[in-house]
Protein backbone atom coordinates (compact mmCIF):
# COMPACT_ATOMS: atom_id res chain seq x y z
CA UNK A 1 0.00 0.00 0.00
CA UNK A 2 0.99 3.63 -0.33
CA UNK A 3 1.16 6.39 2.25
CA UNK A 4 -2.18 7.71 3.58
CA UNK A 5 -3.39 10.74 1.65
CA UNK A 6 -4.66 14.02 3.12
CA UNK A 7 -6.37 16.48 0.75
CA UNK A 8 -6.62 20.21 1.53
CA UNK A 9 -9.77 21.74 0.03
CA UNK A 10 -11.66 25.01 0.23
CA UNK A 11 -12.44 28.23 -1.59
CA UNK A 12 -9.71 30.16 -3.41
CA UNK A 13 -7.33 32.26 -1.31
CA UNK A 14 -8.14 30.76 2.08
CA UNK A 15 -4.49 29.67 2.52
CA UNK A 16 -4.41 26.07 1.26
CA UNK A 17 -1.06 26.44 -0.52
CA UNK A 18 0.40 28.33 2.45
CA UNK A 19 -0.53 25.43 4.74
CA UNK A 20 0.82 22.94 2.19
CA UNK A 21 4.18 24.75 2.17
CA UNK A 22 4.17 24.96 5.97
CA UNK A 23 3.67 21.21 6.32
CA UNK A 24 6.19 20.46 3.57
CA UNK A 25 8.68 22.81 5.31
CA UNK A 26 9.66 24.39 2.00
CA UNK A 27 8.19 26.59 -0.76
CA UNK A 28 6.63 23.88 -2.94
CA UNK A 29 3.34 25.44 -3.99
CA UNK A 30 3.05 28.98 -5.36
CA UNK A 31 1.42 31.44 -2.97
CA UNK A 32 0.01 34.66 -4.37
CA UNK A 33 -2.77 37.08 -3.51
CA UNK A 34 -4.36 36.33 -6.89
CA UNK A 35 -7.28 33.95 -6.37
CA UNK A 36 -7.09 30.64 -8.22
CA UNK A 37 -3.30 30.36 -8.51
CA UNK A 38 -3.40 26.62 -7.71
CA UNK A 39 -5.15 24.70 -10.47
CA UNK A 40 -3.77 21.16 -10.55
CA UNK A 41 -3.43 18.69 -7.70
CA UNK A 42 -0.07 19.27 -6.02
CA UNK A 43 1.44 16.37 -4.05
CA UNK A 44 4.09 16.16 -1.35
CA UNK A 45 5.05 14.12 1.67
CA UNK A 46 4.71 15.58 5.17
CA UNK A 47 5.94 14.18 8.47
CA UNK A 48 4.86 14.68 12.05
CA UNK A 49 6.02 12.80 15.16
CA UNK A 50 7.65 10.14 13.04
CA UNK A 51 4.53 9.55 10.91
CA UNK A 52 4.61 10.31 7.19
CA UNK A 53 1.58 11.03 5.04
CA UNK A 54 0.89 12.21 1.52
CA UNK A 55 -0.43 15.75 1.22
CA UNK A 56 -2.48 17.14 -1.68
CA UNK A 57 -2.96 20.85 -2.35
CA UNK A 58 -5.98 21.51 -4.56
CA UNK A 59 -7.45 24.37 -6.55
CA UNK A 60 -10.12 26.56 -4.99
CA UNK A 61 -13.74 25.49 -5.37
CA UNK A 62 -15.83 28.26 -6.96
CA UNK A 63 -19.36 27.02 -7.46
CA UNK A 64 -20.57 30.10 -9.35
CA UNK A 65 -17.67 30.09 -11.86
CA UNK A 66 -18.74 27.68 -14.60
CA UNK A 67 -15.94 28.41 -17.07
CA UNK A 68 -14.46 25.36 -18.74
CA UNK A 69 -11.12 25.86 -16.99
CA UNK A 70 -12.67 26.25 -13.52
CA UNK A 71 -14.82 23.16 -14.11
CA UNK A 72 -11.60 21.28 -14.79
CA UNK A 73 -10.06 22.71 -11.60
CA UNK A 74 -13.06 21.51 -9.61
CA UNK A 75 -12.78 18.08 -11.22
CA UNK A 76 -9.17 17.91 -10.04
CA UNK A 77 -10.30 18.76 -6.50
CA UNK A 78 -13.03 16.12 -6.56
CA UNK A 79 -10.48 13.54 -7.73
CA UNK A 80 -8.22 14.47 -4.80
CA UNK A 81 -11.13 14.08 -2.38
CA UNK A 82 -11.95 10.67 -3.83
CA UNK A 83 -8.43 9.31 -3.38
CA UNK A 84 -7.83 10.84 0.07
CA UNK A 85 -8.24 9.01 3.38
CA UNK A 86 -8.70 12.35 5.19
CA UNK A 87 -9.89 15.79 4.11
CA UNK A 88 -8.77 19.11 5.55
CA UNK A 89 -11.53 21.63 4.86
CA UNK A 90 -10.15 25.14 5.18
CA UNK A 91 -11.96 28.47 5.45
CA UNK A 92 -10.82 32.05 6.05
CA UNK A 93 -11.68 32.73 9.70
CA UNK A 94 -11.50 36.50 9.16
CA UNK A 95 -14.37 36.30 6.68
CA UNK A 96 -16.39 33.78 8.66
CA UNK A 97 -18.38 31.00 7.02
CA UNK A 98 -19.55 32.20 3.60
CA UNK A 99 -22.31 30.78 1.43
CA UNK A 100 -19.68 29.02 -0.67
CA UNK A 101 -18.24 27.45 2.50
CA UNK A 102 -21.71 26.15 3.39
CA UNK A 103 -22.06 24.62 -0.08
CA UNK A 104 -18.75 22.79 0.29
CA UNK A 105 -19.59 21.69 3.84
CA UNK A 106 -22.87 20.23 2.57
CA UNK A 107 -20.93 18.12 0.04
CA UNK A 108 -18.51 16.96 2.72
CA UNK A 109 -21.27 15.84 5.07
CA UNK A 110 -22.45 13.47 2.35
CA UNK A 111 -19.17 11.63 1.91
CA UNK A 112 -18.06 8.77 4.13
CA UNK A 113 -14.63 10.14 5.04
CA UNK A 114 -13.22 11.90 8.08
CA UNK A 115 -13.06 15.68 7.72
CA UNK A 116 -10.88 17.99 9.81
CA UNK A 117 -12.24 21.52 9.89
CA UNK A 118 -9.56 24.25 9.69
CA UNK A 119 -10.16 27.97 10.22
CA UNK A 120 -7.11 29.81 8.88
CA UNK A 121 -5.71 33.35 9.21
CA UNK A 122 -6.17 33.53 12.98
CA UNK A 123 -2.78 35.13 13.42
CA UNK A 124 -3.30 37.83 16.01
CA UNK A 125 -5.10 38.16 19.33
CA UNK A 126 -7.11 41.05 18.00
CA UNK A 127 -8.61 39.00 15.15
CA UNK A 128 -12.18 38.27 16.14
CA UNK A 129 -13.52 34.90 15.03
CA UNK A 130 -17.27 34.36 14.72
CA UNK A 131 -17.23 30.85 16.21
CA UNK A 132 -21.01 30.58 16.07
CA UNK A 133 -21.00 30.91 12.26
CA UNK A 134 -18.26 28.27 12.06
CA UNK A 135 -20.21 25.75 14.14
CA UNK A 136 -23.21 26.26 11.83
CA UNK A 137 -21.22 24.48 9.10
CA UNK A 138 -21.92 21.25 10.97
CA UNK A 139 -18.35 19.96 10.81
CA UNK A 140 -17.57 20.01 14.51
CA UNK A 141 -14.80 21.84 16.34
CA UNK A 142 -12.82 24.24 14.12
CA UNK A 143 -9.03 24.07 14.39
CA UNK A 144 -7.90 27.71 14.58
CA UNK A 145 -4.53 28.26 12.88
CA UNK A 146 -2.32 30.71 11.07
CA UNK A 147 -0.71 28.81 8.20
CA UNK A 148 1.47 31.83 7.43
CA UNK A 149 2.95 32.16 10.92
CA UNK A 150 2.60 28.54 12.10
CA UNK A 151 0.29 29.23 15.04
CA UNK A 152 -1.84 26.19 15.90
CA UNK A 153 -0.32 24.05 13.14
CA UNK A 154 1.26 21.60 15.59
CA UNK A 155 -2.10 21.03 17.31
CA UNK A 156 -3.70 20.60 13.88
CA UNK A 157 -1.16 17.91 12.96
CA UNK A 158 -1.94 16.05 16.20
CA UNK A 159 -5.60 16.02 15.15
CA UNK A 160 -4.64 14.84 11.65
CA UNK A 161 -2.66 11.87 13.00
CA UNK A 162 -5.56 10.89 15.27
CA UNK A 163 -8.01 11.03 12.36
CA UNK A 164 -5.85 9.11 9.86
CA UNK A 165 -6.20 5.35 9.41
CA UNK A 166 -3.63 3.26 11.25
CA UNK A 167 -0.39 4.41 9.61
CA UNK A 168 1.25 1.10 10.48
CA UNK A 169 -0.48 -0.47 7.47
CA UNK A 170 1.18 1.99 5.08
CA UNK A 171 4.67 1.37 3.78
CA UNK A 172 7.42 3.93 3.42
CA UNK A 173 7.48 5.72 0.08
CA UNK A 174 9.84 4.25 -2.51
CA UNK A 175 12.60 6.38 -3.99
CA UNK A 176 12.00 7.49 -7.56
CA UNK A 177 13.83 9.10 -10.48
CA UNK A 178 13.02 12.83 -10.55
CA UNK A 179 12.11 13.80 -14.14
CA UNK A 180 11.29 17.46 -14.91
CA UNK A 181 9.34 18.21 -18.10
CA UNK A 182 10.38 21.68 -19.19
CA UNK A 183 9.85 23.98 -22.15
CA UNK A 184 8.00 26.98 -23.49
CA UNK A 185 4.26 27.43 -22.76
CA UNK A 186 1.87 25.19 -24.68
CA UNK A 187 4.42 22.68 -25.97
CA UNK A 188 2.41 19.83 -24.44
CA UNK A 189 4.06 19.11 -21.08
CA UNK A 190 0.80 18.51 -19.20
CA UNK A 191 -0.64 16.53 -22.10
CA UNK A 192 2.39 14.25 -22.05
CA UNK A 193 2.05 13.61 -18.31
CA UNK A 194 -1.66 12.84 -18.75
CA UNK A 195 -0.86 10.44 -21.60
CA UNK A 196 1.77 8.63 -19.50
CA UNK A 197 -0.51 8.39 -16.46
CA UNK A 198 -3.56 7.42 -18.49
CA UNK A 199 -5.72 9.97 -16.67
CA UNK A 200 -6.52 13.68 -16.71
CA UNK A 201 -4.04 14.31 -13.91
CA UNK A 202 -3.02 17.80 -15.10
CA UNK A 203 -5.15 20.54 -16.56
CA UNK A 204 -4.73 21.05 -20.30
CA UNK A 205 -6.03 24.20 -21.92
CA UNK A 206 -5.24 26.11 -25.11
CA UNK A 207 -4.49 29.19 -23.01
CA UNK A 208 -0.73 29.45 -22.33
CA UNK A 209 0.10 29.44 -18.64
CA UNK A 210 -2.54 26.94 -17.49
CA UNK A 211 0.11 25.14 -15.43
CA UNK A 212 1.46 27.44 -12.72
CA UNK A 213 2.96 25.21 -10.04
CA UNK A 214 5.50 22.47 -10.68
CA UNK A 215 3.25 19.44 -10.25
CA UNK A 216 4.58 16.02 -9.21
CA UNK A 217 3.09 12.72 -10.39
CA UNK A 218 4.47 9.26 -9.66
CA UNK A 219 4.34 6.49 -12.22
CA UNK A 220 5.93 3.05 -12.47
CA UNK A 221 7.23 1.93 -15.84
CA UNK A 222 8.53 -1.63 -15.87
CA UNK A 223 10.35 -1.95 -12.53
CA UNK A 224 11.38 1.67 -12.02
CA UNK A 225 9.42 4.41 -10.26
CA UNK A 226 9.51 7.93 -11.68
CA UNK A 227 8.32 11.26 -10.32
CA UNK A 228 7.23 13.37 -13.29
CA UNK A 229 7.38 17.10 -12.60
CA UNK A 230 5.18 19.12 -14.94
CA UNK A 231 6.63 22.65 -14.82
CA UNK A 232 5.11 25.93 -15.91
CA UNK A 233 6.01 27.09 -19.40
CA UNK A 234 8.88 29.57 -19.51
CA UNK A 235 8.64 32.58 -21.84
CA UNK A 236 11.37 35.01 -22.77
CA UNK A 237 12.35 37.17 -19.77
CA UNK A 238 11.27 40.42 -21.42
CA UNK A 239 7.76 39.02 -21.92
CA UNK A 240 7.31 38.14 -18.26
CA UNK A 241 5.50 41.15 -16.90
CA UNK A 242 3.59 40.10 -13.79
CA UNK A 243 4.87 38.98 -10.42
CA UNK A 244 2.86 35.75 -10.50
CA UNK A 245 4.42 34.61 -13.77
CA UNK A 246 7.88 35.46 -12.49
CA UNK A 247 7.16 33.27 -9.48
CA UNK A 248 6.02 30.36 -11.64
CA UNK A 249 9.19 30.57 -13.74
CA UNK A 250 11.31 30.68 -10.57
CA UNK A 251 9.59 27.50 -9.37
CA UNK A 252 10.28 25.81 -12.73
CA UNK A 253 13.96 26.75 -12.56
CA UNK A 254 14.23 25.40 -9.02
CA UNK A 255 12.71 22.10 -10.10
CA UNK A 256 15.29 21.82 -12.86
CA UNK A 257 17.95 22.32 -10.20
CA UNK A 258 16.48 19.50 -8.11
CA UNK A 259 15.65 17.02 -10.87
CA UNK A 260 17.81 14.13 -12.04
CA UNK A 261 16.68 14.13 -15.68
CA UNK A 262 15.24 17.05 -17.65
CA UNK A 263 13.02 16.33 -20.64
CA UNK A 264 13.18 19.43 -22.85
CA UNK A 265 9.97 19.52 -24.88
CA UNK A 266 10.01 21.28 -28.24
CA UNK A 267 6.97 22.02 -30.42
CA UNK A 268 7.38 20.36 -33.84
CA UNK A 269 4.98 22.86 -35.40
CA UNK A 270 7.10 25.82 -34.21
CA UNK A 271 10.59 24.45 -34.64
CA UNK A 272 13.46 25.25 -32.33
CA UNK A 273 13.19 28.76 -30.88
CA UNK A 274 15.54 31.10 -29.01
CA UNK A 275 13.72 30.38 -25.73
CA UNK A 276 14.22 26.64 -26.26
CA UNK A 277 17.94 27.33 -26.52
CA UNK A 278 17.90 29.40 -23.31
CA UNK A 279 16.16 26.63 -21.40
CA UNK A 280 18.54 24.02 -22.86
CA UNK A 281 21.50 26.15 -21.80
CA UNK A 282 20.13 26.37 -18.25
CA UNK A 283 19.74 22.58 -18.11
CA UNK A 284 23.37 22.14 -19.20
CA UNK A 285 24.66 24.73 -16.72
CA UNK A 286 22.87 22.91 -13.92
CA UNK A 287 24.60 19.68 -14.94
CA UNK A 288 21.39 17.73 -15.57
CA UNK A 289 20.99 14.68 -17.75
CA UNK A 290 18.67 15.53 -20.63
CA UNK A 291 16.41 14.13 -23.34
CA UNK A 292 14.95 16.33 -26.09
CA UNK A 293 11.34 15.38 -26.93
CA UNK A 294 9.89 16.83 -30.13
CA UNK A 295 6.15 16.90 -29.43
CA UNK A 296 3.19 17.27 -31.84
CA UNK A 297 5.05 15.20 -34.42
CA UNK A 298 1.69 14.00 -35.77
CA UNK A 299 0.72 17.60 -36.63
CA UNK A 300 3.35 18.29 -39.29
CA UNK A 301 3.69 17.22 -42.91
CA UNK A 302 6.47 14.70 -43.23
CA UNK A 303 8.59 13.41 -46.07
CA UNK A 304 11.92 11.64 -46.35
CA UNK A 305 14.46 13.35 -44.16
CA UNK A 306 12.00 15.45 -42.12
CA UNK A 307 13.08 13.95 -38.80
CA UNK A 308 16.78 14.13 -39.65
CA UNK A 309 16.41 17.79 -40.67
CA UNK A 310 14.66 18.66 -37.40
CA UNK A 311 17.30 16.88 -35.34
CA UNK A 312 19.97 18.74 -37.29
CA UNK A 313 18.27 22.07 -36.51
CA UNK A 314 18.28 21.16 -32.81
CA UNK A 315 21.97 20.23 -32.97
CA UNK A 316 22.88 23.48 -34.73
CA UNK A 317 20.91 25.61 -32.26
CA UNK A 318 22.21 23.77 -29.17
CA UNK A 319 25.68 22.38 -29.99
CA UNK A 320 26.30 21.89 -26.26
CA UNK A 321 23.53 19.25 -26.35
CA UNK A 322 24.94 17.35 -29.31
CA UNK A 323 25.33 14.27 -27.08
CA UNK A 324 21.68 14.31 -25.95
CA UNK A 325 19.20 11.76 -27.40
CA UNK A 326 16.30 13.21 -29.39
CA UNK A 327 12.88 11.57 -29.79
CA UNK A 328 9.84 12.63 -31.81
CA UNK A 329 6.48 11.81 -30.25
CA UNK A 330 2.87 12.88 -29.89
CA UNK A 331 1.37 13.37 -26.45
CA UNK A 332 -2.04 13.66 -28.11
CA UNK A 333 -2.00 10.32 -29.94
CA UNK A 334 0.53 8.51 -27.75
CA UNK A 335 2.89 7.94 -30.68
CA UNK A 336 6.30 6.75 -29.42
CA UNK A 337 5.63 7.99 -25.86
CA UNK A 338 6.53 4.56 -24.50
CA UNK A 339 10.01 4.91 -26.05
CA UNK A 340 10.76 7.98 -23.95
CA UNK A 341 11.48 6.00 -20.77
CA UNK A 342 14.36 3.88 -22.09
CA UNK A 343 16.05 7.15 -23.08
CA UNK A 344 15.42 8.61 -19.61
CA UNK A 345 16.93 5.46 -18.08
CA UNK A 346 19.98 5.68 -20.36
CA UNK A 347 20.85 9.29 -19.52
CA UNK A 348 20.02 8.78 -15.82
CA UNK A 349 22.41 5.84 -15.55
CA UNK A 350 25.07 7.75 -17.50
CA UNK A 351 24.83 10.68 -15.09
CA UNK A 352 25.45 8.36 -12.11
CA UNK A 353 28.18 6.27 -13.67
CA UNK A 354 31.43 5.86 -11.75
CA UNK A 355 34.60 4.98 -13.63
CA UNK A 356 37.59 3.47 -11.86
CA UNK A 357 40.85 5.42 -11.69
CA UNK A 358 42.62 2.58 -13.48
CA UNK A 359 40.21 2.73 -16.43
CA UNK A 360 40.51 6.49 -16.61
CA UNK A 361 44.28 6.45 -16.75
CA UNK A 362 44.31 3.75 -19.41
CA UNK A 363 41.89 5.98 -21.30
CA UNK A 364 44.06 9.09 -20.77
CA UNK A 365 47.17 7.33 -22.05
CA UNK A 366 45.36 6.08 -25.17
CA UNK A 367 43.70 9.36 -26.19
CA UNK A 368 46.76 11.55 -25.54
CA UNK A 369 48.99 9.23 -27.54
CA UNK A 370 46.46 9.23 -30.36
CA UNK A 371 46.21 13.01 -30.29
CA UNK A 372 48.68 14.87 -28.04
CA UNK A 373 47.59 18.24 -26.63
CA UNK A 374 48.85 21.26 -28.60
CA UNK A 375 51.83 23.23 -27.34
CA UNK A 376 51.17 26.16 -25.02
CA UNK A 377 53.42 29.16 -25.74
CA UNK A 378 55.89 26.78 -27.34
CA UNK A 379 55.96 24.41 -24.37
CA UNK A 380 54.72 20.83 -24.04
CA UNK A 381 51.43 20.23 -22.19
CA UNK A 382 51.43 16.85 -20.45
CA UNK A 383 48.32 15.26 -18.90
CA UNK A 384 49.59 12.76 -16.37
CA UNK A 385 46.73 11.46 -14.20
CA UNK A 386 42.91 11.42 -14.12
CA UNK A 387 40.31 10.42 -11.54
CA UNK A 388 36.56 10.87 -11.06
CA UNK A 389 35.45 13.07 -8.18
CA UNK A 390 31.64 13.33 -8.52
CA UNK A 391 28.56 12.02 -10.27
CA UNK A 392 25.43 13.84 -11.50
CA UNK A 393 27.12 15.17 -13.51
CA UNK A 394 30.22 12.98 -13.89
CA UNK A 395 33.13 15.20 -12.88
CA UNK A 396 36.79 14.40 -13.49
CA UNK A 397 40.02 15.82 -12.12
CA UNK A 398 42.98 15.78 -14.49
CA UNK A 399 46.52 16.60 -13.34
CA UNK A 400 48.59 18.49 -15.88
CA UNK A 401 51.89 20.35 -15.85
CA UNK A 402 50.29 23.52 -17.34
CA UNK A 403 46.55 23.68 -16.43
CA UNK A 404 45.95 26.96 -18.26
CA UNK A 405 47.58 25.52 -21.35
CA UNK A 406 44.82 22.98 -22.11
CA UNK A 407 43.07 24.50 -25.13
CA UNK A 408 39.28 24.63 -25.28
CA UNK A 409 39.11 22.45 -28.37
CA UNK A 410 41.29 19.85 -26.64
CA UNK A 411 38.97 19.84 -23.63
CA UNK A 412 36.07 19.14 -26.00
CA UNK A 413 38.13 16.33 -27.55
CA UNK A 414 38.59 14.74 -24.10
CA UNK A 415 34.86 15.11 -23.33
CA UNK A 416 33.87 13.49 -26.63
CA UNK A 417 36.31 10.63 -26.08
CA UNK A 418 35.00 10.08 -22.55
CA UNK A 419 31.45 9.88 -23.89
CA UNK A 420 32.35 7.44 -26.65
CA UNK A 421 34.53 5.24 -24.45
CA UNK A 422 32.30 4.99 -21.37
CA UNK A 423 28.81 5.56 -22.79
CA UNK A 424 28.17 8.95 -21.23
CA UNK A 425 25.67 10.31 -23.77
CA UNK A 426 22.88 12.51 -22.44
CA UNK A 427 24.70 13.88 -19.42
CA UNK A 428 26.95 16.93 -19.09
CA UNK A 429 30.56 16.29 -18.15
CA UNK A 430 32.91 18.41 -16.11
CA UNK A 431 36.70 18.17 -16.44
CA UNK A 432 38.81 20.16 -13.99
CA UNK A 433 42.53 20.65 -14.60
CA UNK A 434 44.96 20.95 -11.72
CA UNK A 435 48.70 21.46 -11.66
CA UNK A 436 50.63 18.28 -11.02
Automatic annotation (TrEMBL):
<protein>
    <recommendedName>
        <fullName>GTPase Der</fullName>
    </recommendedName>
</protein>
<feature type="domain" description="EngA-type G">
    <location>
        <begin position="177"/>
        <end position="352"/>
    </location>
</feature>
<feature type="binding site">
    <location>
        <begin position="120"/>
        <end position="123"/>
    </location>
    <ligand>
        <name>GTP 1</name>
    </ligand>
</feature>
<dbReference type="InterPro" id="IPR027417">
    <property type="entry name" value="P-loop_NTPase"/>
</dbReference>
<feature type="binding site">
    <location>
        <begin position="230"/>
        <end position="234"/>
    </location>
    <ligand>
        <name>GTP 2</name>
    </ligand>
</feature>
<dbReference type="InterPro" id="IPR031166">
    <property type="entry name" value="G_ENGA"/>
</dbReference>
<comment type="similarity">
    <text>Belongs to the TRAFAC class TrmE-Era-EngA-EngB-Septin-like GTPase superfamily. EngA (Der) GTPase family.</text>
</comment>
<feature type="binding site">
    <location>
        <begin position="295"/>
        <end position="298"/>
    </location>
    <ligand>
        <name>GTP 2</name>
    </ligand>
</feature>
<comment type="subunit">
    <text>Associates with the 50S ribosomal subunit.</text>
</comment>
<feature type="binding site">
    <location>
        <begin position="183"/>
        <end position="190"/>
    </location>
    <ligand>
        <name>GTP 2</name>
    </ligand>
</feature>
<feature type="binding site">
    <location>
        <begin position="57"/>
        <end position="61"/>
    </location>
    <ligand>
        <name>GTP 1</name>
    </ligand>
</feature>
<dbReference type="InterPro" id="IPR015946">
    <property type="entry name" value="KH_dom-like_a/b"/>
</dbReference>
<comment type="function">
    <text>GTPase that plays an essential role in the late steps of ribosome biogenesis.</text>
</comment>
<keyword id="KW-0677">Repeat</keyword>
<dbReference type="GO" id="GO:0042254">
    <property type="term" value="P:ribosome biogenesis"/>
</dbReference>
<dbReference type="InterPro" id="IPR005225">
    <property type="entry name" value="Small_GTP-bd"/>
</dbReference>
<dbReference type="GO" id="GO:0043022">
    <property type="term" value="F:ribosome binding"/>
</dbReference>
<feature type="domain" description="EngA-type G">
    <location>
        <begin position="4"/>
        <end position="168"/>
    </location>
</feature>
<dbReference type="InterPro" id="IPR006073">
    <property type="entry name" value="GTP-bd"/>
</dbReference>
<dbReference type="InterPro" id="IPR016484">
    <property type="entry name" value="GTPase_Der"/>
</dbReference>
<keyword id="KW-0690">Ribosome biogenesis</keyword>
<dbReference type="InterPro" id="IPR032859">
    <property type="entry name" value="KH_dom-like"/>
</dbReference>
<dbReference type="GO" id="GO:0005525">
    <property type="term" value="F:GTP binding"/>
</dbReference>
<dbReference type="Pfam" id="PF01926">
    <property type="entry name" value="MMR_HSR1"/>
</dbReference>
<feature type="binding site">
    <location>
        <begin position="10"/>
        <end position="17"/>
    </location>
    <ligand>
        <name>GTP 1</name>
    </ligand>
</feature>
<keyword id="KW-0547">Nucleotide-binding</keyword>
<dbReference type="Pfam" id="PF14714">
    <property type="entry name" value="KH_dom-like"/>
</dbReference>
<keyword id="KW-0342">GTP-binding</keyword>
Amino acid sequence: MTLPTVAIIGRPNVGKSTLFNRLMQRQEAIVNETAGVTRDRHYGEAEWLGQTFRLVDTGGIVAEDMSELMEAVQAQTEYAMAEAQLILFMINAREGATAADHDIAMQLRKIDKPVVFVANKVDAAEVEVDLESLYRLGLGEPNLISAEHGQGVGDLLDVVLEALPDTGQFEEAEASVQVALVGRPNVGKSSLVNRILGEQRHLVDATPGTTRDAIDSRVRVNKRLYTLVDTAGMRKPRRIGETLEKTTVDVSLKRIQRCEVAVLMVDATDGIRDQDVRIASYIERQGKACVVAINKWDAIDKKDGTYEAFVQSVAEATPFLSHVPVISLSALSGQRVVKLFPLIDTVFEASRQRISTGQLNDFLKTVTERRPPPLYRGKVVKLSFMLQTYVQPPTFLCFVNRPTGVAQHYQRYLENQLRQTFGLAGTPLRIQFRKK
